[in-house]
Design a protein that fits this description.
four-stranded antiparallel beta sheet, 4 strands, NADH Oxidase, binds flavin mononucleotide, 10 helices, alpha+beta
């Protein structure tokens, strides 16, 4: 199977059947998320794995009653740093340097460069930047799940503040960003299962550019091509 076949197979499953995802498949999906690239390698996010039915029922209450939350096998909650700080960045960089057998001062200049860049932008910008990084891991988890023929529903339809309170993330330095229930489709009762997958036509999605396209101000804006 190719990646494109896997991505064509997957869809945002609306109805799951409660069957359990085997531990090796779950581990594979989490490993794909862990291997995601991130800005400066900071990996400013983590994944919470929840399969306790009682907790899932509580989460469903703050997720617009979406049934996949309780009918899944495991719910992945992606959570990202609520801001950048010298201490956090130092901890990650020192870990990387230790793993590579390099002295801690090796990345000092780079650390100061990103701190100078990030600090004036404020914690809202920083939390948003960290959240964007978590979506890269989220996307890889979606692709890995498809490869394993595990269904997954990307879910942003939940109340972040209420979920953070429920999971006691407040004060932990993390905030929830996005959810990914993993499980298996229940074809009867899922209105989306046999629908055509529709995406922006390639010709609209991809625009090739040359310098001539961007250098002449009198030309039509590139986005309108
Ligand atoms: C970030 C994000 C958030 C989404 N939130 C929800 C959601 O809360 N509930 C849901 O049923 N689908 C949700 N979806 C699924 C999208 O509606 C779906 O991916 C899109 O319509 C494309 O369809 P497909 O994934 O079946 O190919 C979300 C998708 C993404 C990427």
């Amino acid at each position: 199977m190719s990646l494109l076949e896997d991505l064509s197979w997957r869809y945002a499953t609306k109805k799951m059947n409660g069957a359990r995802v085997p531990a090796d498949k779950l581990a594979y999906i989490l490993e794909a998320a862990r291997l995601a690239p991130s800005s400066s390698g900071l990996q400013p996010y983590k994944v919470l794995v929840i399969s306790d039915p009682a907790l899932l029922a509580k989460i469903r209450e703050v997720a617009y009653n979406q049934s996949q939350i309780t009918d899944c096998s495991h719910l992945l909650v992606f959570a990202a740093w609520d801001g950048y700080s010298e201490a956090r960045i130092t901890r990650v960089f020192n870990y990387i340097l230790d793993e590579r057998g390099l002295p801690h001062h090796t990345m000092d200049d780079y650390k100061q460069t990103i701190l100078k860049l990030y600090e004036p932008l404020g914690t809202d910008w920083q939390a948003h930047h960290a959240a964007k990084q978590s979506y890269i891991a989220f996307a890889l988890a979606i692709a890995a799940a498809a490869e394993q023929r595990v269904d997954a529903t990307p879910i942003e339809g939940f109340d972040n503040a209420q979920l953070d309170a429920l999971l006691q993330l407040l004060g932990s330095g993390y905030r929830s960003t996005v959810l990914l229930p993993l499980g298996y489709r229940q074809e009867d009762g899922d209105w989306l299962v046999n629908m055509k997958k529709v995406r922006t036509p390639l010709a609209d999605f991809v625009t090739e550019l040359t310098l001539a396209d961007v250098a002449a101000p009198e030309k039509q804006p590139v986005a309108a091509k």
